[in-house]
Amino acid sequence: MKRAQKLGVLVSGTGTNLEAILAAIAEGRLASEVAVVISNKAGAPALERAEKASIPTRVIPHGNYASREEFDQALVAALREAGVDWVVLAGFMRLITKTMLDAFPNRIVNIHPSLLPAFPGVDAQKQAFDYGVKVSGCTVHLVDGGTDTGPVIAQRAVTVLDDDDADSLRKRILREEHALLVEVIGAREEGRVEVVAAAGARTRVRVRPS
Ligand code: GRF
Asked: Given the CA of residue 19, which atom of ligand 1 is nearest to it?
């Protein structure tokens, strides 16, 4: 039994992960609805993708706010107004604060283009390529206050090929990101994502098989 989620998708850039979610919804592979797409950058191509799919968009420029908390308060207000119950950071290039975390406890996920905890932060694919790893990939994780530090929900590995450069690796990882993000949203719809918090231990996320 699928439980449709009202998703709020936060973006800063191209929006191919957003597009993957929208395609999965349009094709009936996901039951959720994207209730709002919010960008911290005006003119982000992701906004155009949302508009084409008739999804309401908001631009909330972080530079208009004196602090991260105030920016997050504006995000929370916009997400609440849209009735969002689950937040997806899809190429959203801002760190979020307790204000957002408290408003959506264990309900914010991020997609990151490496196998965390390796290569957090920006340019993860180039970091991995420059390091010379043989396997990289992508991670969907719950968001906490750190940079790509939250509990891992799911990962996909991508082999680094001898003739790769940072860009070809980035493209192959991106394809897996699209699939992984849709997979995790689907698992959540089916109630298969379980957060296991135990005193003194790192919070874990279990995804039960379908
Ligand atoms: C993706 O690689 C994502 O993992 C990272 O930023 C990129 C966003 O791509 N956080 P897109 O905007 O979804 O095309």
From this structure: 13
Tell how far the Cα of 160 is from the centroid of ligand 1, in angstroms. Answer: 19
Q: What is the pTM of this model?
A: 0.97
User: Which structural domains are found in the chain, ordered by start?
Assistant: 1-105 (3.40.50.170), 111-210 (3.40.50.170)
d(CA 96, CA 106): 13
Tens-digit pLDDT profile for residues 92-141: 999 999 999 999 999 999 999 999 999 999 999 999 999 999 999 999 99
Kindly give the distance from the C-alpha atom of residue 90 to the centroid of ligand 1, in angstroms, as a whole number.
Answer: 6
As a whole number of angstroms, the distance between CA 83 and CA 163 comes to 47
CA of 88 to the centre of ligand 1 (A): 12
Q: What is the spatial distance between Cα 56 and Cα 37, in angstroms, rounded to a whole number?
A: 6
Per-residue pLDDT reduced to its tens digit, 164-180 = 999 999 999 999 999 99
Nearest-atom number in ligand 1 for the CA of 177 is 4
Residue to mutate (ligand 1; options 10, 17, 96; most atoms within 8 A of CB): 17
Tokens encoding 185: 């949203």
User: What's the CA gap between 24 and 184, in Å, rounded?
Assistant: 12
Contact at 8 Å (CB) between 82 and 35? yes
Look up residue 104 and give its DSSP letter: S
Give the binding-site residues of ligand 1, using a 6 Å CB cut-off: 13-17, 46, 90-91, 111-113, 174, 177
Active-site positions? 112
